[in-house]
Specification:
2 domains, binds nicotinamide-adenine-dinucleotide, about 350 residues, binds zinc ion, Quinone Oxidoreductase, Chain A, domain 1, globular, Rossmann fold, alpha/beta
Length: about 350
């Protein structure tokens, strides 16, 4: 089969590779729609996972099941499914502890284009199909469905980690697709004021659509100062970090009220340490919580998010700024995510 792959750090291209084989609990899926992620860019162009040779890229896909293993009970060939970016090993101690993302090793629930070929091939392999696939309801479009697999779940996880309370004030730093879903998640969790930090008009407009009450541009001066001024020097109850370089965590600590929470879903690709400002962290005694997490995956998570879309609690369609038809456009879509022009939030590639 053909797959669009990382050839080595910095290089992508089409390769001919072996069609995956299903073990007893697994499924083989043919993608119907895929989307490149900022993480694919980190993987290929920044070597975020280290060197990988001829590894099929991608972890965001909806598709059609073409084969299931002998022990798969709920899915069969021909079913249309949403495939989460994170497909944990559910028979692991980490999953029993409630952290399936880290099943059998830190971040090891992330398998696609990490430990095995990803979703940008003619076929891809899904471990533990009954626990990791979810049925795609006919009323959800392929474009919206593919947003659920990573962008919706990740943005919402940021909001979950930020411990948002009814009526509380939230800042969302970075309003790419993930941050936009953090804005939507904050609204669903009952935030009062939602301050979104971003600049590009396409993102700003979407942030307002998803529930931002205030917009701050990090290009208009010191971000912490701007947000403290906006909140009469009080800061915010919760911060979701969904963009920025490693020093953005310092800003997050500065703008969080004592006892507040920072939910980080941002990826930090450089430097050995992340730093916390001592004074603003109360010399160690501020009760400001910092929690960073890989998004949850798995079937139940997908089914719950599907319901949020199906029952009109969230509409992911504003994230999809470009739709391509045909696998041949994979490279174009990936490079679009790299250069991220003014009008781009997420491209989706539909496959016949
Ligand atoms: P994105 O690049 O589209 O969005 C990030 C935004 O942050 C950009 O618009 C950028 O302009 C903005 N930004 C840069 N510096 C900033 C600053 N100082 N202040 C505020 N905004 C700033 O990326 P995305 O697809 O939305 O993903 C966001 C992050 O989430 C990435 O780091 C990605 O790797 C990560 N991610 C994490 C998970 C997870 O499971 N935790 C899953 C998917 C993606
Ligand atoms: Zn992703």
């Amino acid at each position: 089969m053909k797959g669009f792959a990382m050839l080595c750090i910095g290089k992508t291209g089409w390769i001919e590779t072996k069609k995956p084989v299903a073990g007893p609990y697994d499924a083989i899926v043919r993608p119907l729609a895929v989307s490149p992620c900022t993480s694919d860019i980190h993987t290929v162009f920044e070597g975020a996972l280290g060197e990988r040779n001829n590894m099929v890229l991608g972890h965001e896909a909806v598709g059609e099941v073409v084969e299931v293993g002998s022990e798969v009970k709920d899915f069969k060939s021909g079913d249309r499914v949403i495939v989460p970016a994170i497909t944990p090993d559910w028979r692991s101690m980490e999953a029993q502890r409630g952290f399936s993302q880290h099943s059998n090793g830190m971040l090891a629930g992330w398998k696609f284009s990490n430990f095995k070929d990803g979703t940008f091939g003619e076929f891809f392999h899904v471990n533990d199909a009954d626990m990791n696939l979810a049925f795609l309801p006919p009323e959800i479009s392929l474009e919206n469905a593919v947003m659920i697999t990573d962008m919706v779940t990740t943005g919402f996880h940021g909001a979950e980690l930020a411990n948002i309370k009814l009526g509380s004030t939230v800042a969302v730093i970075g309003i790419g697709a993930v941050g936009l879903m953090a804005v939507a998640g904050a609204k669903l969790l009952g935030a009062g004021r939602i301050i979104a930090v971003g600049t590009r008009p396409v993102s700003v407009e979407a942030a307002k659509f998803y529930g931002a009450t205030d917009i701050v541009s990090y290009k208009d001066g010191d971000l912490a100062e701007q947000i403290l001024k906006l909140t009469e020097e009080q800061g915010v109850d919760s911060v979701v970090v969904a963009g920025g370089k490693p020093n953005i965590l310092e800003t997050a600590v500065k703008i969080t009220k004592p006892g507040g929470s920072i939910g980080n879903i941002n990826y930090y690709g450089a430097g050995e340490f992340l730093t916390i400002p001592r004074i603003e962290w109360g010399c160690g005694m501020s009760h400001k919580n910092i929690c960073g997490g890989l998004t949850p995956g798995g079937r139940l998570r997908m089914e719950r998010l599907i319901d949020l879309v199906k029952y009109n609690r969230v509409d992911p369609s504003k994230l999809v700024t470009h739709v391509f038809k045909g696998f041949d456009n994979m490279e174009k879509a990936l490079l679009m995510m790299k250069s991220k022009g003014k009008d781009v939030i997420k491209p989706v590639v539909l496959i016949d």
